[in-house]
Design brief:
5-stranded antiparallel β-sheet; binds 2-acetamido-2-deoxy-beta-D-glucopyranose; 357 residues; single chain; 17% helix; 4-stranded mixed β-sheet
Length: 357
């Protein structure tokens, strides 16, 4: 009977002692020391820690899960599957001559990489318009702890923004992160994606857990935008030469081109470059290129065709040269004839001697 009474008393004391932790003092001398001083554990993984209390003191551990081994000044604790999101694990001992306990809490970060990371354009489907604002939304599901989450949104290799939650939940939660952006023509065909990274500090795993979303691509309607000048200079071309008028533009959808030409000219074209291989006088005048896409731009060209005087000049030169040659040869033969006659008179020899050649 006395044995069972003692047993009951001891059990009761144990219960009282365990309850006594709630009256625990954290500002005490000789606080119990955990090894390691904190834990970073992935949900469902195993974990362990030890605690040492002051010499001659009796170390005790309060924990909602796992196995403990209280062995004088050292307490060992381990668990095969860590599944408690906010575990209250405390190591303590009774302060001599009081009812208070000196205790230390083991900081535990239990983490879970996100189950889903996805990206979308908020309230938008299909092609977007240039110079307009849209919102990217990165959806991250079932991640813990959310305060350690760093969400980043990228366009190709370019970082567009870092986003963080203000929530302090320790259990897994889902959150949608938004980022506004304004489209430019360079965004046509761009790839957007989102990255979720848990930053767990030096006690965390060597490579922090990272989950990436799939890429989404954007179609942006833009332009048409002219590649050349909107107000081209007067085009001067010589009759018979090649005439080329260029109103190339870029855009999505691809620009379409129609031309209006001077009434005398009959060149029809529906490309960005109008070519006339041999210009005639009638081709001079006003040309307009209408570039159409999301809007229509008109480029006006004025073409001035100059007469081609080169053949006349060449003919003139030839005539002059021939005339000159004729004049020179006539003059020379006249001179020679005179000289010959004079020689004939002076020497009295036959004219054949002199003028036969
Ligand atoms: C995005 O823009 C909308 C409309 O201008 C604004 O209401 C919203 O707060 C912006 N969101 C962010 C994340 O900046
Ligand atoms: C037309 O003009 C654009 C812009 O100046 C230029 O890039 C392109 O090479 C030109 N095309 C031709 C065939 O000259």
């Amino acid at each position: 009977m006395s044995v069972s009474y003692v047993f009951l008393l001891i059990s009761l004391m144990n219960v009282l002692r365990d309850f006594g932790v709630s009256g625990c003092v954290e500002q005490c001398k000789d606080k119990p020391v955990f090894m390691p001083p904190s834990l970073v554990v992935m949900y469902g993984d195993s974990a362990s820690a030890s605690c040492v209390v002051c010499n001659g003191c009796e170390g005790r551990l309060e924990t909602p899960l796992g196995d403990k081994e209280e062995n004088g000044t050292i307490v060992h604790w381990k668990v095969d599957r860590m599944t408690e999101w906010d575990p209250n694990i405390q190591c303590y001992y009774l302060i001599d001559g009081t009812d208070d306990h000196c205790c230390t809490k083991l900081p535990v970060t239990l983490y879970q990489p996100p189950k889903v990371v996805s990206i979308s354009f908020l309230n938008h489907n299909g092609p977007m318009l240039e110079a307009s604002q849209y919102t990217l939304e990165c959806n991250i599901e079932n991640v813990a702890p959310i305060k350690n989450l760093n969400a980043t949104i990228y366009k190709g290799e370019t970082l567009l923004g870092h986003l963080q939650s203000s929530s302090q939940h320790k259990k897994p939660v889902s959150e949608k992160f938004q980022l506004n952006f304004t489209t430019t023509e360079k965004d046509d065909g761009a790839q957007y994606w989102c990255k979720a990274e848990l930053q767990l500090g030096p006690d965390g795993p060597e490579s922090p857990p990272v989950v990436k979303s799939e890429n989404i691509s954007s179609t942006v309607y833009y332009g048409p935008r002219l590649l050349g000048p909107a107000n081209p200079d007067l085009v001067t071309v010589t009759e018979g030469d090649v005439l080329q008028l260029n109103c190339s533009a870029v855009g999505n959808p691809s620009p379409l081109y129609t031309w209006t030409v001077p009434s005398g000219s009959a060149h029809l074209d529906n490309g960005s470059i109008l070519t006339i291989d041999s210009v005639r006088f009638e081709d001079g005048g006003k040309y307009a290129c209408h570039v159409s896409g999301n809007r229509t731009i008109t480029v006006d060209f004025t073409v001035n065709v100059q007469g081609n005087y080169l053949p006349y000049i060449i003919l003139g030169v030839i005539i002059s040269v021939v005339g000159l040659l004729i004049a020179v040869s006539v003059g020379y033969s006249q001179y020679y004839k005179q000289k010959c006659t004079r020689q004939y008179i002076l020497t009295g020899t036959g004219a054949a001697h002199c003028c036969s050649h």
